[in-house]
Structure formats: structure tokens, C-alpha cells
Amino acid sequence: MPRANRYFVPGQVYHLTHRCHDRQFLLKFARDRDAYRRKLWQGVGEFDLSLLDYSVTSNHVHLLACAENTEQISRFIQRVDGEFAQIYNRRNHRSGAYWEDRFHSTMIEPGGHLEACMVYIALNMVRCRAVPHPRQWPWCGYHELMGLRQRYRIVDIERILAMLGGTTLDEVRRHYEAMIQERIAKDEMKRDSKWTEAIAVGSKEFVRQMASCVRGRQELEIQGAGDTWALKELGLRYGAFLGPKTGCSDDL
């Protein structure tokens, strides 16, 4: 069975996606999404990394993270997902795999591309018509960035501001909300595979730089136009072997 790609280059921002096994809706209940979020909170306190954004859906999760030591990111998601799976299986008298074999990572260039990725993550459950706006989905980073959640916060606001170019929090909030509202108003929320299947997303220069860092491991190609480019690995995409998608929240 093909496995999801994981390319790590020190100092980069990573959009991490991980599906439940066989696309099962194992996170369909609020109590389980709450429990997963608590594991994220614990993990952020144990590992030397910053979580910039997240979304917990009914059958997969999105995490946006950065760390100087990339091993911290792998250890973080392995700890969080592994311990949560054990707790879930024990509580539900369930055996077998909880997650797909591996998580996928996409390197995101700081600045405008990072903000666009955050908007894409925030709109995940709007895209599948589960809620009309991210504020109606409690299990995402939108609430922390917009100041709606004050307790047990896990998003590193200061790191986000630095990654977006040192702008003020008020400016980030206004622009972030405006981008979300515009996408919703224009119904521009379709799934975009570059955010979840590419090796890297950013400017052409950034993507070429990332290609030079990972070249030689697999056959690669650079796709894009204008300001946004993606580095992709030739071959089956993450999840392509799983068959047709069913259910709204399968849409990564």
C-alpha cells in the first residue's frame, strides 16, 4: 500500500494531515474531538514546537506546526495520535488501527502563502457544508486567533505574527476574517490538493529551494503559475488508493 509522503527541512512550517483508518468517521462525536484537542494541548506543552493552526474534523485532522528541530514534529504527532488512539480504542472496546499508516506533511512558505493555508484549514468544515462559518466549529484554530477562546489555548499567536511578517494582531485578524468572508461569499472553497498533497507550496523560488533540499529521493515536478507554486512527487496522491470519497468531511 502506498504511504503518505513526509519531507522535513529544518526551519520550515508544515501543514500536517492525518486520516482515520479507512476514512472511518471515528471523530464524529464532540467528546472525541474534545479529547483529541486536549491531547494537542498536552503535546504542545511537552515538545519544543509551535502549533500555528489546527482543525479536527469527523475523520481527519489538520495541524500547522513549526520547530527548529524537525524531529520534535514527528515525535509530537506520533505521541498525540498514538496516545489518543489507545484511549479511544480502550474506551470503545475497539481493536485495530485508528489512523491511516502515516501522516502527510506539506511545507508552507511564511507570509501570504501561510495565511492562505490557514484560511483553507479554517474553511474545511464550511467547505463540506457542516457549518456556515468557522466560528460555528469549535475544534479549529480560528477561535484562538480571533480571541474567542481564552483558556487552554494551543496556538502560538506570537509565532504566527512573526511568520506573517511582523504585522499587528488586529491587522492579521481583520485580513484573515476578510479572506474567510470573501471565500464564503464567492463560494470559493473547493478542495485544493496542493495544500494536502504537495511537498511544498509557496513562491517559485521557495519551491525550487525545497526541491533542491529533497531532490534525489523521488521523482519530483514543480507546478503552478503566478505567485503560487507547488512541489509534487510523481505517483499516487495521499489517499488515492482508498477509493472514492464518501461523506463531507473526507474533503481534506
Given the structure, what is the number of helices? 9
Provide the number of structural domains. Answer: 1
Number of strands: 7
Helical amount? 25-40%
How far from one another are the termini? Answer: 20 Å
Label the structural class: alpha+beta
Q: State the shape.
A: globular
Which second-level CATH architecture applies? 2-Layer Sandwich
Kindly identify the CATH topology: Alpha-Beta Plaits
Which class in CATH terms? Answer: Alpha Beta
Instruction: Summarize the helix and strand pattern as letters.
Output: EHEEHEHHHHHHEHEE
Low-confidence stretches: 238-247
Query: Numbering strands along the chain, what is their spatial order in the largest sheet?
Result: 2-3-1-4-5-7-6
State mean pLDDT (0 to 100 scale). Answer: 90
Characterise the protein shown here.
The chain has helices at 30-46, 70-91, 112-122, 124-127, 142-145, 157-163, 169-185, 194-197, 204-214; strands spanning 13-19, 50-56, 60-66, 104-108, 200-202, 220-225, 228-233. With 252 residues, the chain is of the alpha+beta class. It has a seven-stranded mixed beta sheet, sandwiched between helices. The chain is globular. Residues 238-247 have low confidence and may be disordered.
Topology:
Layout: E1 13-19, H1 30-46, E2 50-56, E3 60-66, H2 70-91, E4 104-108, H3 112-122, H4 124-127, H5 142-145, H6 157-163, H7 169-185, H8 194-197, E5 200-202, H9 204-214, E6 220-225, E7 228-233
Parallel strand pairs: 4-5
Antiparallel strand pairs: 1-3, 1-4, 2-3, 5-7, 6-7
